[in-house]
């Protein structure tokens, strides 16, 4: 059911902008694992972190959930009574498969947290009070001018003591750091079987739709949104994850 990602394997006369469609959804677990250094660690740790901050009877959001990898980890780790997960994505191909994966998890493990998968634009959602919000590799796909507003809404919806887990690809102000970490990221992709052509075509496909920020930009914006403390807990090459504390 999970196909190998060969989307950019053949030469394309014109590479179009990256979209989360059926073709991507079908290969997504393979694509993200071979493309994002540290992805399995970030997913498992997202569950562990959620387990530390989820309070009894509270909601947990997974925004831009794709196939629900973080939601699955959250359901394995959170032990607080009466919690519920709301997983949201605006791509119908992702939402459909996400529901299938979560049903399969339900069939394998008893007494998992209830989860609701919504097909919706996270910019249009009215968030309910919650203890944990996960935004893993999704803010980078949101129009830059809308990012602060989204983080403010998340901050406002968090209960006292609540946290945001934010994972992103990073941009670097220092050109040496930026080019060396990009080189290492491409070496990671090559080591995972991607060809130079695949790497180059994917780069073209994402360059107009995925716009990473620097760590400083993330910090300042999170503070501006209200977060009292921002703690980076993970970095592998040019990918990182932060916890924002209310
Ligand atoms: N406005 C939006 N509203 C809702 N969803 C959106 C929006 N914009 C983008 N998305 C969704 O955000 C997801 C980003 S992938 C997240 C990986 C996942 N978190 C994972 O940890 O496996 C990141 C990546 O592929 O690099 C896609 O499923 C989009 O449809
Ligand atoms: O592939 C890349 O270069 C990335 O930066 C990560 C990524 C992973 C999956 C979809 C889009 C981008």
Automatic annotation (TrEMBL):
Organism annotation: Halopseudomonas yangmingensis
GO biological process: methylation; tRNA wobble uridine modification
InterPro entries assigned to the protein according to its UniProt record, in alphabetical order: CmoA, Methyltransf_25, SAM-dependent_MTases_sf
Molecular function terms from GO: carboxyl- or carbamoyltransferase activity; methyltransferase activity; S-adenosyl-L-methionine binding
Gene: cmoA
Subunit structure: Homodimer.
Gene3D superfamilies to which the protein is assigned, alphabetical: Vaccinia Virus protein VP39
Enzyme type, top EC level: transferase
Organism superkingdom: Bacteria
Protein name per the record: Carboxy-S-adenosyl-L-methionine synthase
Binding-site residues, S-adenosyl-L-methionine: 39, 64-66, 89-90, 121-122, 136, 203
Domain Methyltransferase: 60-162
Pfam families xref list: Methyltransf_25
Keywords of the record: Methyltransferase, S-adenosyl-L-methionine, Transferase
Catalytic activity: prephenate + S-adenosyl-L-methionine = carboxy-S-adenosyl-L-methionine + 3-phenylpyruvate + H2O
Family: Belongs to the class I-like SAM-binding methyltransferase superfamily. Cx-SAM synthase family.
């Amino acid at each position: 059911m999970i196909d190998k990602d060969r989307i950019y394997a053949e030469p394309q006369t014109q590479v179009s902008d990256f979209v989360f469609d059926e073709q991507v959804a079908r290969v997504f677990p393979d694509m993200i694992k071979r493309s994002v250094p540290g992805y399995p660690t970030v997913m498992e740790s997202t569950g562990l972190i959620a387990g530390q901050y989820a309070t009894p009877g509270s909601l947990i959001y997974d925004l831009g959930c794709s196939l629900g990898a973080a939601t699955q980890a959250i359901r394995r780790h959170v032990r607080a009574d009466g919690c519920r997960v709301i997983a949201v994505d605006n791509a119908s191909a992702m939402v459909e498969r996400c529901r299938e994966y979560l049903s399969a998890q339900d069939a394998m493990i008893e007494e998992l947290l209830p989860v609701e998968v919504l097909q919706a634009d996270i910019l249009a959602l009215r968030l309910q009070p919650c203890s944990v919000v996960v935004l893993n590799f999704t803010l980078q796909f949101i129009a830059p001018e809308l990012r602060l507003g989204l983080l403010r809404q998340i901050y406002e919806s968090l209960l006292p003591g609540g946290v945001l887990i934010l994972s992103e690809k990073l941009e670097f102000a220092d050109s040496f750091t930026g080019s060396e970490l990009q080189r290492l990221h491409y070496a990671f992709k090559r080591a995972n079987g991607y060809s130079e052509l695949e790497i180059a075509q994917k780069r073209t496909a994402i360059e107009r739709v995925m716009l990473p920020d620097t760590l400083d930009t993330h910090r300042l914006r999170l503070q501006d949104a209200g977060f009292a403390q921002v703690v980076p807990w993970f970095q592998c090459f040019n990918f990182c994850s932060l916890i924002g504390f209310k």
